[in-house]
Amino acid sequence: MEISSLGALRQYQSAQEALKPETTTTTNTSDKDSALAKGVEEFSEVFKAVEQSVQGLASGQADAHSVVEAMANAELALETAVTVRNRVVEAYQELLRMPV
Q: Which residues of the chain have pLDDT under 50?
């Protein structure tokens, strides 16, 4: 195994840990029902579907079309998450610039 593939494997594993819903910090049970928690759960499900479809392709149980479709959905979900993050950061920076 090449060194670059080991780095990619470590990054993939850390991304999987970050996508686990139980790692999100919540203060009470009503926070678990929040839109953010549901969004994180749905985001995680998209990447689980990609992983399952790739494993199905490797074992011969799925076709390439389903893998490409799952990856396109994952790409869209990731772009959406990055856009939301960028908007939140921009809003926070705007709050910091406001005079008190």
A: 1, 23-24, 26
